[in-house]
Amino acid sequence: LLRRNDDANRFPVGILPLGRTNTIGNTLFSKGDGVFRVKQLIEASMAIIKGNTMWKDAMKIEPIEEEEDAVFGKPIFALCSLEWGAFRDVMSKKHKYWLYGSLREYASYVFNGYRQSLNWHCKGVIKYSPPCDGCSNCVMKRPQVKRKWAFFLPSTTLAEDNSPANLVNNKCDSTKEVCFQTSDFRIMTPNLQNTQTTPALSIGIGKYNYNYAEFVSEGWDRVRDKSIKNAILARSVMLFPKEHFGATTIDIDREEYEAKPIKITLLPKVVRLFCSDSNNYEK
Q1: What is the CATH number of domain 8-130+174-274?
Q2: Which of the two residues, 112 and 134, has the higher pLDDT score?
Q3: Domain extents for the chain?
Q4: Its pTM surpasses 0.90
Q5: For 78-99, what is each residue's pLDDT tens digit?
Q6: Which residue, 233, 239, 200, is CA-closest to 64?
Q7: Which one in 199, 223, 260, 271 has a CA-CA gap of 20 to 30 Å to 280?
């Protein structure tokens, strides 16, 4: 929907909180187990009938360098996060420990924390711009389709003059550069980590050297709380990974891609989703 120019994103999308990796579904409806799990599914279905909707942010991910074998032939869009590193690798293996039931995530860290096959060496450079409420630099004007009956419609010139696309913010175009070497790199949208004020991407750069006990301890903490501490806030990020031992893998909304130079841009309030009564839905 976001690749189109005809405002198709104004139509709401219904998401059922099914599957183990459906992160956005669990943010729209209260998560639970057993009977509460059934209640969650009923609540998600009733939201479509009631017509409760709310706007969610997304991030646009596009290649910086065009290559013949590029993974991202076209820009892709994500609602939740981008992850790279050892913690991401462990979470991709948790399905192997289904025997442990609800403890499988904890077991994943216990049995994989010592493995050298994990991506312990994430090295690269990021260039990011500060958060912005919207200005002429970051708000894209969509081409207007002229129709034969357009002269019968009321003029919208005044509304266009007050739109963010006509505002000027000199700081919006500035960038900062950070070189990093870590075992944990993450970018989250406000859907998972609310920045409260100006919409922004939350960038987390973790430690580089972990011993076994530290890695397992932090992994267990992350099972309970996945938020990024001391996050760097940004409107857009250019990520330039540097290969350490051949090709590496990044995770975008639980889908695996080869790590290559990409640009991540926050698109505030561009996806309309059905939600529960407890959310601040549109009436």
Answers
A1: 2.60.200.30
A2: 112
A3: 8-130+174-274
A4: no
A5: 999 999 999 999 998 988 988 8
A6: 239
A7: 223
